Amino acid sequence: MKKIKVTLVGGGSTFTPGIVKSIALRAEELELAEICLFDIDKERQDKVAVVVDWILKEDVKCDIKLTVTNSAKEAYTGATFIFAQMRVGGYKMRELDEKVPLRFGCVGQETCGTGGLSYGMRTILPMIKVIDDVEKYAEKDHWILNYSNPAAIVSEACRKLRPNARIINICDMPIAIIDMLAASLNIKDVSNIRYDYFGLNHFGWFTSIDYKGRDLLEEIKVYIKENKVLLPPQHLEKIRKNKSTGDRHAVSSWLHVWESVYTMMESFPDYLPNTYLTYYLLSKETVEHQDPTYTRANEVMNGRERDLFAGVDHYLATGELKEDTFYAGSHGDWISDLAIALKNDTHARFLVITENRGALPNMPYDAMVEVPAYIGKKGPEVIAQNPVPLFQQGLMMQQLNSEKLIVEAAIEGSYEKALQAFTLNKTVPSMEVAKQLLDAFIKENGELWPTLK
């Protein structure tokens, strides 16, 4: 059998070391010969590559070839799998995506609300370039597995502009929720948890969760009601300890999100919501909780970012790699297992973002929805779900049309359609606020956005 090459687009990401470790641990199943890191930021990628090289040689101890490049041709030539995790504009622009809306009393979040619309406008055309370059240089049977956010807007743009692209858009947030649920209920083998889910990316609901005949959805409802949060006991204990010592991270943005699951389920208890629904169903409360001078972007830059690059410097100076330098876990496992399912035609079950085509019978046929699918060598075989209840359908249609309009605005260079997208978004209270936000984002994004007229 032919040995394959996997290319990571956005090789300078802090997630790269964890993804590489997941890939390397599955080298035999993937029949892997080479991992290539590709990023336009050479300085950043070169630092991350130091950790990646250590992982391959010292941690996993394998003979996988590592290539580090800033050339699209070199990156994609001979590649079978392309894992895309771009962050167009870097953390500087993420910070603005989060802080600009807060100036106007709206939710500040990188993928949701108007911050997500801003990020989407930056990412659409670069993702189309990735598809075109991959099509030109990679193996004919290649697959692009896309983690790049905001995935809902990116997937809609790909559907509209490159409908025949061999791309599967995915998100690991539902998997993170399942991990938290499993830890809360003391379940170790998460792979045996089976669930049904419907929605859009960062905008969906679990309708059933089963573990060897156990109804986990009902169990987790009880747990959330008792603890007023969807976090396992060990997390809760750490939070209590940190609060008692005055640790500000005990009341970070993510803690608010996990607590909001309780609030949402108190009013709407039928399904377990994706945590990102916090930003839409509890917009006012989220804004009140947020610090306009210190958002999630700052938490990441002063946490995961700092730890990785400080760890690289320490390793280069001492030859010792600290334990907290990088994180490896479900984020990398999910995308690597998806590649195995595609390559080996396993028909394993995954949650993917895909064209609806009747999977949700009362949603538009061309909507990019997030639903379970069996994955084989021909791609996703979507598992049909029940009709979406009226309340969730109404929310989804509002969000879907906002996302469709921002994609059309980017393609057509239409200011009016961008304004419609902002006005329609549930996190924005009025047309006038939408216009103020749009104009502010045009100024902040500059040439990173398409020109709007």
Keywords:
about 450 residues, alpha/beta, Rossmann fold, L-2-Hydroxyisocaproate Dehydrogenase, Chain A, domain 2, 6-stranded parallel beta sheet, 4-stranded antiparallel beta sheet, 18 helices, 13 strands, about 50% helix, globular
Fold and architecture overview:
The chain has 453 residues and is α/β, with parallel strands linked by helices. Among the domains are: 4-169, Rossmann fold (3-Layer(aba) Sandwich), CATH 3.40.50.720; 174-189 and 201-302, Alpha-Beta Complex (L-2-Hydroxyisocaproate Dehydrogenase, Chain A, domain 2), CATH 3.90.110.10. The protein is built from 18 helices and 13 strands. The chain has helices at residues 16-25, 27-30, 42-59, 72-76, 90-103, 113-137, 151-161, 173-184, 216-227, 233-244, 253-267, 278-281, 283-289, 296-318, 330-344, 390-412, 415-424, 431-445, and strands at residues 4-9, 32-38, 65-69, 81-84, 143-146, 167-169, 193-200, 203-211, 214-215, 272-273, 348-355, 368-376, 379-382. The chain has a six-stranded parallel beta sheet with strand order 3-2-1-4-5-6, with helices on both faces. Strands 7, 8, 9 and 10 form a four-stranded antiparallel beta sheet that branches. A three-stranded antiparallel beta sheet has the order 11-12-13. Helix 6 (113-137) crosses helix 7. It is globular, with a radius of gyration of 21 Å. Substrate binds at residues 94, 149, 296.
